[in-house]
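User: Sequence recovery, please. Input:
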């Protein structure tokens, strides 16, 4: 599982989890991810 977090030019937080991209309007200072808490998303991509 890959996790990337960066601030783009607009000052918006971009968090990449696997192939998902999550954007937050405020700065995320701490990110905790437990693998067992991540739902299966592959089966939703039909």
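Assistant: Recovered sequence (46 residues):
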């Amino acid at each position: 599982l890959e996790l990337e977090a960066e601030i783009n030019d607009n000052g918006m937080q971009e968090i990449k989890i696997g192939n998902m991209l999550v954007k937050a309007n405020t700065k995320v200072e701490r990110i905790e991810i437990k693998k067992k808490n991540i739902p299966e998303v592959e089966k939703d991509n039909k």
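Strands lie at 3-7, 13-17, 20-24.
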